[in-house]
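Today's session is about reading a structure prediction critically. Students often jump straight to the picture, but the first step is always the sequence itself: look for stretches that repeat, for charged clusters, for runs of hydrophobic residues. Only then move on to the predicted structure, which in these notes is written as discrete structure tokens rather than atom positions. Here is the chain we will use throughout the hour.
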Amino acid sequence: MTMTMEGTDEVAAPSPPRGPREALRRSTQRLTRAGGMDDEPTVVATTLDEVDRVAAFAPAILAVRWATTVVSLALAYPSFVDRDLRVVACTGALLALTAIRTIHPLRYVGDTKSLIRVLSEITVPVLAVIATGFWASPFVFSLITGIVLAGFARGFGFAIRIAFVAAACVAIPELARYDLAEEVVRESAQWTAILVLVGLVAGYARRISGEADRQHTLALDRLGRLADANALLYSLHRVTQTLPASFDMDEVLDTTMGRLQGLIQYDVAAVLLLDDTDTSWEVARTEGVRMLDRVTVGQLAAPLQRAIREEALVSESNLLSNMGPGVSGESRSGLFAPLTARGSLIGLLAIESREADHFTSRDVELVNGFVEPAALALDNARWFARLRTVGADEERTRIARDLHDRIGQSLAYLAFELDRIVSQDGRGEPVSSSLDQLRGDVRGVIREVRDTLYDLRTDVSDSQDMATTIEDYAKRVGERSNLQISLHLDRGARLPILQEREMWRICQEALTNIERHAEATRVRILWRSNGRAAALEVLDDGQGFPDGTAGRFDSYGILGMRERASSVGATLEMASAPGRGTRVRCYLGYGEEAA
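Below is the predicted structure for this chain, in token form.
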């Protein structure tokens, strides 16, 4: 046997597959685009037809509208006395507009109809001013309402343009009428400046309010995200409470009873688990009372039967007067709850006291909060026991297959040889040479048994890393098979023990297949690990096999490798060709690391 060891830098690690890495990167990009990974909160924009941009300024607009209307009425009063019909008609129009907008405030949502409504707010006053004396009109202050509304709706740029247009509509006819008289020019300039300043103030107020609203929206969004994070952390906390240090049912039951003792004072407690096979109830734990190991539904205490029917906690303040005895005949009050997990009833919890009216409403709330995580923990332990049983069955099958392949045939051969020697001796023929040969064969079988037991015991552990395990195992395989094995192994950085153990079993299975089936002379084993990701490659120069026919060569072993890789989220690749050997590659964690 020849086995060479090379350092990490001498052989390049195999290129990790791009598929998982690219897929994870695309998923990350999608999350980033969706706002799920940004530092800033994602504010979802509402469509324009859903936002009233002047709703926040409605009180201010109403106040300005009524103030200018009242001022206009005061200025128009002398014309009322003189019965000026134009002033009366315009007053009626402005009062009607004010009343309508008081009852039905104007909405601006950014569309054409909204813009027309805003323009009408300035058009009506402009016409009234032109009809009743231009800048001398009593309604000139009503122009302010339309300009303020324009500024609140679309900002100071739009408000200034509206102010200039309104001022021009009034000033140009008056200037033309009085031949650009100096006094008229001065009056037009003054009112134009006033209207423009009103537009600037309204637009600036909108801008300040918009910044405040934006900061308020961001603050609310951050608060919402914090609330979501808090809810998630609370859920995770509840989940962690359901996961004890071990999934062993006995430990889960002990933990459950211990937590119960810390929550409530009681004299009697019992946990019963449902047996799905015959719908009976196994008495899993009791305190303060003796019960049968297993009871039927009819043998359950009446309060427990009621808890099953109502699917809710039952509180009894006086058992003997109401429903009859609980799980203990000495109990006077009790709490009886169904244990439900994943939508199914898995058990029952009984808590009793020898005092009547012992349990308070607070105790009821505590038990209601306790039964859900307790039921989930018990259900986890139950499913884990089932999975462990299945895993033990599979491991027994694998061991039986190894014993059959490596030892069963040798034992059958020894039996045939013994029969032959007995027959030879019965014929009076010498058997010394045959016995010597048989002794050598027996020693070989003993060696095979030792090797098999060693192989079954060989595993990674906290004290033995992957590199050392591969090195020791490869040395033994090389000694018994004359394979030339070259090793390229990283040392130091380790994976979690469960992941490393499955990777080791994949390596062991690949090397076993080479030893038994490949008819190879040289093998190369490469192991790369940085503590977060790992790559394993086993390459031989054996007979190989055509693509798609790997199942012909120890199909159970190859299936086992795929299942082990899948169990830890690794990627397994197999490549082979007749006469060109076989390559087994297994990658773990490269996609996550690249992302």
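Discussion point for the tutorial: The mean pLDDT is 77.
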